[in-house]
Each structure stands twice: as C-alpha cells, then as structure tokens.
Amino acid sequence: MLTLILISCGISSCISALLCFAAGSRLTVRLSAPLSLFALGFITALGFGHIIPEAFEGGDPHILGMVILITVLTLYFVENLLGSSHKHSHDHSAMSEGGSGILAGTFLHTICDGVVIACSYMSDLHVGIAMTIAVLSHEIAHEIGDYAVLVSLGMTPRHAYCVNAAAFTGSITGGLMAYFVISGYTSLLPFALAISGASFIYVALCDLMPRYRAHDGFKRNLTRLALIVAGAVICLLIASHD
C-alpha cells in the first residue's frame, strides 16, 4: 500500500517535467487549458460523488459537514492572504521573490495532494486510483503553468524545473505524513476525507471554473463544457466499483 501511495504521489510531477522537457514552453502553455478543464470536471465529480460520501459513511454527517464548511472558509482565507503577498512580490519586480513564492506555494499545495491521495487509497482502492488521476490532471496543468511563469520571469528552463522538484518533494512528504498518522489513528480517516473532498471542490469551483467564465462564443464554450463533462464521466466510471 505504501509503495502504491508513493508512486501515485510522485507521478504527476514526473510526467509534467517530461512534458515540459519534450514539448517546450510554448506548447506546454497551450496544453494547460484543456488539462485544467478536464481536471475541473474530474475533481468536482470525485469530490461530490465519492470522497464526501465515503467520509459520511464513516462518521457523523453533521460534524463532517461543519468540517467541510471550515475547510472551505480556511482555504478562502489562506488563498486570499497568499494572493496578496504574491501580488506584493511582483509589484517590486523581484524575480527571485516571485520565483520563491511560486515554489513555496507549489510545495504546500502538493503536500495537500499527497495527503489526499494517501487518505483515498486507505479508504478504497478504486477511489485512490480516481484520486491519483484527478491530482494528475490538475497538477500537470498547475505545474506546467508555474513552469511557464518562471520562464517568463527570466529563469532558464533548466532552473524552472525546480517547480517540478518542489512538487515531487511536497507530494511525497504529504503522502508519508498521512499514511503514518492515519494508520495509527483510523478514526481520523473520515475527517481527512471530508477535508480532502472540500479542498477539491473548492479548487474546482473557486480556482479553475472562474478562469473560463468569459463569453468567448458558443463554440468555444461548448468545447469547454465537453471537456468538463468528459472529466466528470471518466471519473465516475473509474471510481464506481459497486
């Protein structure tokens, strides 16, 4: 189980690094949008359709509902706090500070992804596989975007791969932490799943979806909807095991 968790935690940063190396910075930027839309459908379906229901099966739904609410509000507060700091850094045109902020944010974000993956596998193998694909689709788009930003700030492509190293280290760290803590305290698993589901839904609805709300024509919006629905359908097919 631990080996599977570690492989699942590290795979997204490895694949995104390979994509950045093989495709180059221009193509990687073009790939990030469809991957983000696919991830939007995938992680929304996974959060509402599997992770939160799994949490409710193992604990009091009323208590877990409050955990979900607190998680969403906390994420909103932290994201706005970090967003203000990140903007302040760029206002001073300090490439090193901007790069440090991106790397730190990537590290913290992927720690959470590692925790989510580990909790999912400890709940159910099928949900763990679906979670790995969800993190894969979301994180590849995220890391490719960070790579492109670092290059635009003046870093060489070689140095910009630091974001992939930070992502790999963070996800492995989060996976190990969750595995050893929850293995000893299985009663924490429903709470960990509730937090995981809430974080995925928050990312989907507050981070990914607002990027694509512009009125760019019927055909383009239809294409976006098709990618979102494809992500949701594939998620439900993978995670369904009854």
Give the topology:
Blueprint: H1 2-58, H2 61-91, H3 95-123, H4 125-152, H5 157-160, H6 162-184, H7 189-208, H8 218-239
What is shown here, in short?
With 242 residues, the chain is an all-alpha fold.
Helix content: over 70%
Round the mean pLDDT to the nearest integer and report it. 76
Structural class: mainly alpha
Task: Tell me about the largest β-sheet.
Answer: none
- Low-pLDDT residue spans: 84-97
Morphology call:
globular
The arrangement of helices and strands along the chain is HHHHHHHH
Strand content: under 5%
Number of strands: 0
Give the termini separation. 21 Å
Tally of individual helices:
8
Instruction: Write down the Rg.
Output: 18 Å
Main attributes?
globular; 8 helices; 242 residues; mainly alpha
Question: What does this entry look like structurally?
Answer:
The chain is built from eight helices and no strands. The chain is mainly α. The chain is globular and about 50 Å long. The two termini are 21 Å apart. Mean pLDDT is 76; it is low at 84-97.
